[in-house]
Amino acid sequence: MTGRDLLIDRYLPHPHFSLVRNTIVDAPVKETYAAARALDFTDVRGGVVSVAGWLRMLPERRHNRRHGPPRHPTRLTADDLDAGSPWALLGDEPGREFALGVAGKFWRPVVQWRRVEAEDFAAFEEPGYGKIVMAVSTFAYGPHRTLLTVHTRVALTDPESWVKFRRYWRIAYPAIASVHTALVRTMAANARQRALTAYARTDQA
């Protein structure tokens, strides 16, 4: 018997770089997935860098040079990223997992972004770019708990880009790891709160 394919395997099966964080959440899959899917990234901070800043990265810096300080959004969910940024929502399997992806030249002082839609993402191989997929998955861990995973993969489209990104990765890895840890902790905390609210409603019914 084999397990089902994950979205991250569908869109970026052979990464050059990868980072995974997971935890066991004291909440059922339904609440855990809902908390992850609805997460407002502007509420999450990972010690040395905000998650919202990591996701948007440096397009705002370019805007700042031309037009002054950027307006900070009041919310930044996965749907907001898909609708208003280079990040695309590659797939969404409600109650199980969702994945966001983007292409770009991440190693540059000002990132050159490239939005690639889901139907083209796996096959995108234009030289000089990298591809990132960030996937969030939830699996039942017994009847009342969930295994929550945040998994990011990066692949480069040519050897020169691989060398450039490797230099960037060595410097940026601690901040990116901090972001992933903060994501998992915040999603888990929000899921527990959702579960407690659901139980309270059930007791009152």
Summarize the model shown:
Helices cover 42% and strands 24% of the residues. It is built from 7 helices and 6 strands.
What's the structural domain tally? 1
SSE order in H/E notation? Answer: HEHHHHEEEHEEH
- For the record, give the distance between the C-alpha atoms at the N and C termini, rounded to a whole number: 42 Å
**Which consecutive residue ranges, at least 5 long each, have pLDDT under 50?**
57-71
Helix content range of the residues, please?
A: 40-55%
Number of strands: 6
- By CATH, the topology is Alpha-D-Glucose-1,6-Bisphosphate, Chain A, domain 4
Percent of sequence in beta strands:
15-25%
- The CATH class assignment is Alpha Beta
Main sheet record: 6 strands, antiparallel
Radius of gyration: 18 Å
Oligomer: single chain
Give the structural class: alpha+beta
**Total helical segments:** 7
Second rung of CATH, namely the architecture: 2-Layer Sandwich
C-alpha geometry = elongated
Protein described:
With 205 residues, the chain is of the alpha+beta class. It has a single domain (7-199), classed as Alpha-D-Glucose-1,6-Bisphosphate, Chain A, domain 4. Helix content is 42%, strand content 24%. The chain has 7 helices and 6 strands. It has helices at 7-11, 29-37, 51-56, 59-67, 78-84, 118-121, 159-204, and strands at residues 17-25, 88-93, 97-105, 112-114, 130-140, 146-156. Strands 1, 2, 3, 4, 5 and 6 form a 6-stranded antiparallel beta sheet that branches. A hairpin with a 6-residue loop joins β3 and β4 (112-114). α2 crosses α7. The N and C termini lie far apart (42 Å).
